[in-house]
Specification:
The complex is a heterodimer of chains A (275) and B (307). In chain A, 42% of the residues lie in helices and 13% in strands. In chain A, helix 1 crosses helix 3. Chain A has eleven helices and nine strands. Chain A has one domain: Thiamin diphosphate (ThDP)-binding fold, Pyr/PP domains (Rossmann fold). Chain A has a five-stranded parallel beta sheet, with helices on both faces. Chain A has a two-stranded antiparallel sheet with strand order 1-9. In chain A, strands 5-6 form a two-stranded antiparallel ribbon. Chain A has 275 residues and is α/β, with parallel strands linked by helices. Chain B is α/β, with parallel strands linked by helices. In chain B, 38% of the residues lie in helices and 19% in strands. In chain B, the strands form two sheets. In chain B, strands 2-1-3-4-6-5-10 form a seven-stranded mixed beta sheet, with helices on both faces. In chain B, helix 8 links the parallel strand 8 and strand 9. The N and C termini of chain B lie far apart (41 Å). The chains are: A alpha/beta (275), B alpha/beta (307). Chains A and B meet through helix 5 and helix 6 of A and helix 3 and helix 5 of B.
Chain lengths: 275, 307
C-alpha cells in the first residue's frame, strides 16, 4: 500500500500534540523533530505487520532517544498497532504508553530505552542477532544529538563497524538542541559526519531531516549499503519542535515543556493548514 | 580443576547443544578461561573489547532476538561499572542475560584495590529482578550451570576463578533457590557464601572441640535468599554468624538481617569492614580483612555469648 507520507506526517504530528496536550506536559520538541523519519520507516520502508507485531524476521526500529516515546506511539497508532484512543492514556498510572519506550508494555515497541546510549547498543545486539539468524531483517535505530555525548554510543559505533553490521541503519536527530542549551554550547558534536565516517560507518548527511522526500531518498540509499559490510548513519539535520511555530520558537525550552489542550488544538489547526 | 575451567567446560557443552547460547566478553576471555573456546564457537562468542557497558546492552539486544547471552568480566566491571546497564537494559527490560563476575573480593589479589569488589553483591542486590549466585566449589558450579542457563531472567554469578577444595560430593542435588545445610548443629548457625565455606567448616570443627555445636548453611543464592531456611535455622539455634568475602554492608549479612528482622536472634558478622581492598596475596589479604578461621571462631563464640 502506498501512503501519502506528507499526510502521514501531519497525522502523526497532530496525534503527538493531542496526547501531550491531553497530559499537559511532555518531550514535545524531540518528538516533533523525528516525525518524517518515523513516517518513512513505518509507512514505507519497514517489513512489518501490525497484525503480527512479533512476526519473525520483521524489521525493527529502536528509539534509543527513548523520551521520544509519544512520537513512536502516535506512529504505531496511525499504523494500526493499537487504537488511537489509547494515546490519551500517555503517562497516566497503569498506562501501556510510558514517556520512555518499554518493550514489555507497548505493542510494537521492540526495545526498552530511556537511559541514553543504551538503546543504541541494544540495537547493535539486535542487528548482530539478525545476522546470526540470517533472516535478512534491517534494524533501524534513532539516537539523539545530546545522546551522542554518551560514551556508550561510540562503544557501540565501534563494535557495529568491527562486526560489519551492514543490516544496521541509524539516524541522528541533529536538531542541535539539548536541555541546557545548544549542542554547540554544551559539548559540541561537530564535525559529526566525519566522526561517524572515522568510526567506519557509511554516512548520509540529510540537509533537511524534516523534508520527507529527502528522508525517503536517504533511507532508500542507505538500504543499498547492504553488502558494503558497513553500518550506515543518516544524519538528519532537523528542527526541534518542527511543525508548530511557537514550539519551534521556544528553542531549547521545548525539550520538555507544558502544552495545554487549547495550545494543542491550535497547533493541530496549524499543522493541518487551517489557520 | 580450576573453577574457570569448570565454567568454560559447562559453557562449551551448553553452546554445543544450543546455538542460541552466546558468550560476550570484554577483553578478559583469557582470564575467564573461555578464550580457548572461541575457535570452536566462532558464531557464538564475541569480544566487545574493553567496553563493558556496550557488552551488557548488546547482550540485552541479543536476548530480545531469542538468544541466551552470557557476559563476563572481573566482578567490579561486571557490576558497579555497568550498574545502569544491568538495571535498565537487562533487568528493567526483563532480558535473559547471565552476568559472570570473576575474582570476587580478595580473590583479585595482585590486581589490588581497583579490581577488588567489596560491594558487587550490594550493587546487584539493590536492582530488582537480579538473582545472585556464588558457587563454593566445582561440584556445585557444575550442577548449577545448566540450571542457570535454563532460568529465564538475569543472574549474577560471582565466580572464584582458581581451584577450590571440594565441599560437596558427586551426586549433590542443586536447587537454585534452596540453601544447603552442610552440618547440622544446635548452638548457633553460620551462614556462609563462596570460597570461605571450607573455612567455616574448619572453624565448626574447632568450635565442636570447645563444645559449641555449629550449624553450617551455605547460602549459594544470596538473592532471593532462602528466607525459610534462614529463619528456621536461626530459631532453632538462637544465634547467627554470617561469613562473607564482601563488605558487611549490602552483602550476605544484610540479606540475612533482612530475613531475620522480626526475629529475636543475635547476629554477628565476619566480612570486610566497610573498606576498600588492597594489593596482596590471599594469606595476607585474609589477615588484613579478618577473613580467617580464627576470626570466624572468635565471632562464633561472641554470637553464642549474646544468646
Amino acid at each position: 500500500m502506498n501512503y501519502d507520507l506528507k499526510e502521514v506526517c501531519k497525522d502523526i504530528r497532530c496525534d503527538i500534540m493531542t496526547c501531550i496536550g491531553h497530559l499537559g506536559v511532555g518531550h514535545i520538541g524531540g518528538c516533533l523533530s523525528i516525525v518524517e523519519a518515523l513516517a518513512v520507516l513505518y509507512f514505507k520502508e519497514m517489513n512489518i505487520d501490525p497484525a503480527q507485531p512479533k512476526m519473525a524476521g520483521r524489521d525493527r526500529f529502536i528509539c534509543s532517544k527513548g523520551h521520544a516515546g509519544p512520537a513512536v506511539y502516535a506512529t504505531l497508532a496511525n499504523r494500526g498497532y493499537f487504537d488511537k484512543k489509547e494515546l490519551l492514556t500517555l503517562n497516566q498510572g497503569g498506562t501501556h504508553l510510558p514517556s520512555h519506550c518499554d518493550m514489555n508494555l507497548t505493542t510494537g515497541i521492540d526495545m526498552t530505552t530511556g537511559s541514553l546510549g543504551q538503546g543504541f547498543s541494544c540495537a547493535v545486539g539486535v542487528a548482530l542477532g539478525s545476522k546470526l539468524e540470517k533472516d535478512g531483517a534491517t534494524i533501524y535505530a534513532m539516537i539523539g544529538d545530546g545522546e551522542s555525548q554518551e560514551g556508550q554510543i561510540w562503544e557501540a559505533a565501534m563494535f557495529a563497524a568491527a562486526k560489519k553490521l551492514d543490516n544496521l541503519i541509524a539516524f541522528t536527530d541533529y536538531n542541535r538542541m539539548q536541555i541546557d542549551g545548544t549542542t554547540m554550547e554544551v559539548n559540541d558534536l561537530d564535525p559529526l559526519a566525519e566522526k561517524w565516517s572515522a568510526f567506519g560507518w557509511n554516512v548520509i548527511d540529510v540537509e533537511d531531516g524534516n523534508d520527507v522526500e529527502q528522508v525517503e531518498e536517504a533511507v532508500a540509499h542507505a538500504k543499498l549499503g547492504r553488502g558494503s559490510e558497513k553500518p550506515t548513519m543518516i544524519i538528519l539535520n532537523t528542527k526541534k519542535g518542527c511543525g508548530v511555530r511557537w514550539i519551534e520558537d521556544l528553542g531549547t525550552g521545548n525539550h520538555n515543556c507544558p502544552v495545554s489542550e487549547e495550545q494543542a488544538a491550535a497547533a493541530i489547526r496549524e499543522i493541518r493548514g487551517e489557520d | 580443576m580450576e573453577m574457570r575451567a569448570v565454567y568454560a567446560e559447562c559453557l562449551a557443552a551448553m553452546m554445543k547443544q544450543d546455538k542460541h547460547v552466546v558468550l560476550l566478553d570484554a577483553d578478559l576471555g583469557k582470564a575467564s578461561g573461555t578464550l580457548g573456546l572461541r575457535k570452536d564457537f566462532p558464531d557464538q562468542i564475541f569480544d566487545c573489547g574493553v567496553a563493558e557497558q556496550d557488552m551488557a546492552s548488546i547482550a540485552a539486544g541479543l536476548s530480545s532476538y531469542g538468544f541466551k547471552p552470557w557476559i563476563e568480566s572481573f566482578t567490579p566491571f561486571a557490576t558497579r561499572r555497568i550498574c545502569d546497564q544491568v538495571a535498565i537494559s537487562i533487568s528493567y527490560a526483563k532480558r535473559n542475560v547471565k552476568i559472570v563476575g570473576t575474582d570476587p573480593g580478595i580473590a583479585a589479589e595482585l590486581n589490588g584495590g581497583t579490581h577488588m569488589s567489596m560491594e558487587d553483591i550490594g550493587v546487584m542486590r539493590s536492582i530488582p529482578g537480579v538473582v545472585i549466585f556464588e558457587p563454593v566449589d566445582a561440584v556445585q558450579l557444575r550442577a548449577a550451570m545448566p540450571v542457570l542457563n535454563a532460568y529465564e531472567g538475569p543472574v549474577y554469578v560471582r565466580l572464584f576463578r582458581k581451584e577450590l577444595p571440594d565441599v560437596f560430593t558427586e551426586g549433590y542435588k542443586f536447587d537454585l533457590f534452596k540453601a544447603d545445610t552442610l552440618k547440622e548443629g544446635k548452638d548457633l548457625t553460620i551462614f556462609v557464601s563462596g570460597f570461605l565455606t571450607r573455612d567455616v567448616l574448619t572453624a565448626a570443627g574447632q568450635l565442636a572441640a570447645e563444645g559449641i555445636d555449629a550449624e553450617v548453611i551455605n547460602i549459594h543464592t544470596i538473592k532471593p535468599i532462602d528466607r525459610e531456611a534462614v529463619i528456621a535455622s536461626a530459631r532453632k539455634t538462637g544465634a547467627v554468624l554470617t561469613v562473607e568475602n564482601h563488605n558487611v554492608i549490602g552483602g550476605l549479612q544484610s540479606a540475612v538481617l533482612e530475613a531475620l528482622a522480626a526475629e529475636k536472634v543475635p547476629v554477628c558478622a565476619v566480612g570486610v569492614e566497610d573498606r576498600f581492598g588492597e594489593v596482596g596475596k590471599l594469606p595476607y589479604l585474609r589477615e588484613a580483612m579478618g577473613l580467617t578461621v580464627e576470626n570466624i571462631v572468635a565471632h562464633a563464640r561472641k554470637a553464642v555469648s549474646l544468646k
